[in-house]
Specification:
The complex is a heterodimer of chains A (407) and B (141). With 407 residues, chain A is mainly beta. Chain A has three helices and 20 strands. Helix content of chain A is 10%, strand content 55%. Chain B starts with a helix and ends with a strand. The chains are: A mainly beta (407), B alpha/beta (141). At the A-B interface, strand 2, strand 3, strand 4 and strand 5 of A face helix 1, helix 4 and strand 4 of B.
Chain lengths: 407, 141
Amino acid sequence: MQLQRNTNLIMKTITQKLVLSLTASILAAGTARAYDVSLSTNLPPVDFHGFLSQGFLYSDDYNYLGDSKQGTFGFTEMGLNAAINPFPRTRIAVQGFDFDTGNVNQYHPFLDYALAEYTFNDEIGVRAGRIRRPAGIYNAIQDIDLARTFVLLPQGMYDARWRDWSAGLDGGELFGSLPLGKAGSLAYEGYAGLVNMSDNGGVARYIEDGLSPGVFNSIDSTPTFGGQLWYNTPLDGLRVGASFTYMNNFGYTITEPGPLPIHSQGNVPMQQYSAEYMWRSWTFQAEFYTYDFTGHEYLPTMGNAVIGSAGDNPQTWYAAASYRFNKYFEAGAYYTQFRDFAWSKPDPDGHQNDTALSLRFDLKSWWIFKIEGHAINGTGLLRDSASNPVTKNNDWFMLAVKTTFSF
Amino acid sequence: MKSMLFHLGLLGFILAVGEFRALALDGAVVIANPGVAADSLTADSIKDIYTAKTKYWDGGQAIVIAVLPDKTDAALQQASGMEAGQFKTFWQRLAFSGRGQEPKTAADAGALVALVAANKGAIAIVPADTALTGVKKIEIK
């Protein structure tokens, strides 16, 4: 245990030094341009990009996404990627990533994606390796702050703590864009692979949080398949999409309250429906997301005797609008509702609605700053009962500030 | 019934408008690296390039988009259907999810022409009065 603590401390120290070095490099460079590095005269240059996002969260009532009640800077993301087209129609891309959100990950760098891609033509291509999972407007870029207006995406759909569950998988996918003539085009991605769950990830912490008393043991990596369809309509800027994901035999092991380990396992079908319309300086978005998980609980040490079941059936939707006033300033707002229909929790724990207002300042092409207010009703997404032993107030407020450097 | 007719009419209008799509770039022209085989492109194929539907030239060379922020924003919007900020965000989403290569940027028109000249497969929109050295002008059909 002591060794583990020391290892974590060393990793945290190294990562913090890397953060400072990356920040200093970006500031010293003072440019948003990517770095091209030539490996050989026979190969095209390698294209490097990177970013560092540092956030601050404050809430007036509950600890949400960290120790926000006293204000927390434990809200960091950083990535460094490289890409090259070594052969015709072939592309290789890799990204290292690190983040800290409350008690999740806490500065443990990892390989985010590493893929090889071959594009036969516009209609079909294949991508294999560790890939980011497409779902809706934001899933594949859920932790890329610079690629959106808002600091916090609707958390019932894009939980900042659950990226090991949602962000990527090891496997492959087919992708392409099918022209439909005057009717627009259809972009598709279909994938299959293994989602690598972490015993220290957000979903593991969520399961652990639900044990009272009990001990969390482990979480299983899960075979997963699915697809995303986007219909680009003939109306310029309007696209509508649908995605489906199926996690096969998602499972985890706990010990509660007796001495025998309990394994919970079940399939998780997910659906997401999306619409996005870019008109002049406006961007309008709306999405709906749901999944249905029923985990059958059994005792592996007692002949897999089934002892019960438990699960989640959440539904989340949001509607958002943002407007870019000029190259320096953008404003946006959204309203979102989350409710879990598998729960019988009384309010305020059974739901969470959020009205967000966000201001984004592009101070330089390589430096953005955001400030955002959230008027929240309900506590259904706190998912941290240890830090929030009493949840009696329905209405509360959160302030989110974030700055991102990129090149 | 009236509602259905209205929606059918709206769809017909959209389809009709789509048929007459043409590209006119305000005070700008499209250029490419001389190694690019194409001498002309349709408005739709230019849009496919700027919206990442087409990522490779015929022959397999990767398309490298180069942009000149601020000075060709209007033409970029006409080509891509997106305003400059939306265009930047669109490509950042692709780049940081491993699905595409972010456009290269240049500080001025001369630097943009030099960038296109130096990068195989490069394409760019430049102000029409720019001196074009080491690049080819692409006709828009």
